[in-house]
Amino acid sequence: MALVKLFSGTESIALAEKISDFYGQKLGDLTINKFKDGEMQTVINESVRGAHVFFIQSTFAPADNLLELLLLIDSAKRASAGYITAVIPYYGYARQDRKDKPRVPISAKLVAGLLESAGANRIMTMDFHADQIQGFFDIPVDHLKSEAIYVPYLKKQDLSNTIFASPDVGGVKRARTYAKYFEKDLVICDKERRKANEVKKITVIGEVEGRDVILIDDIVDTAGTLCAAANALIEKGAKSVKALCTHPVLSGNAYENIKNSKLTELIVTDTIPLANKSPKITVLSCDRLFAKAIRNTHEYRSIAALFVD
What we know:
Blueprint: E1 4-8, H1 13-23, E2 30-34, E3 40-44, E4 52-56, H2 64-78, E5 83-88, H3 107-118, E6 122-126, E7 141-144, H4 147-155, E8 162-166, H5 172-181, E9 186-195, E10 198-205, E11 212-220, H6 224-235, E12 240-248, H7 254-259, E13 265-269, E14 281-284, H8 287-298
Parallel strand pairs: 1-4, 4-5, 5-6, 6-7, 8-9, 8-11, 11-12, 12-13, 13-14
Antiparallel strand pairs: 2-3, 9-10
């Protein structure tokens, strides 16, 4: 069996170190050189010939994170790595997965093509914005589910008065997974947008009077939709509102929006490092899930076995 080599990109080093600790192997040695104009050069400082190489890097903004990952993959390919897996906890550009208006790119597909062209043999990620993004790849994709992290966490909570909710129609499937597992009711927040990142109106579909509501979503960006949904739920009589969101993009006025909202708690994972701390934000690490998935991939064992049935 080929030797395993774990490496981290610049912006995912904190998560990569935790993954490597749980896996039981130190991160490999590499250097990212930058010219004065910002041009990057990746240097792997140890042999990867014939090895199964895992590069851990989320591709959130800026685009340098994606470019760095592509350069690392190319470096390993040209150094005769036996097999290359791109471990991308947060897959950037996933929200652009279709043509929803004329003359726009399908950016999620373009990024998939770039990763394959660079030399990746396999992709490992968590909670694509849309499951069908897996079909953009012609190489294997290990699509991990955050339920493997959140369900054990929720089992330790008092859910006797809880119902689950989706902050928009597009997220109903995600929220229904939790409602079905815990045998709870589901409500939907139907949003009307003025434009991207700006919500005009939220309509709550379902009964929330006196209930503790948990909103389920994959990405929290400016938190506009999430906070508007939480406020609408409280106005409809909800006792409290929490939220589970896998990827804490948290751009713009997100932290201020969360602080001033009716949300009592926002629970996220560490696929993206937080820029600021907030008493309302709780972070659960995905280190063990990725470490187990990496081991199962290398040992040709089931990935599905890591998920909640």
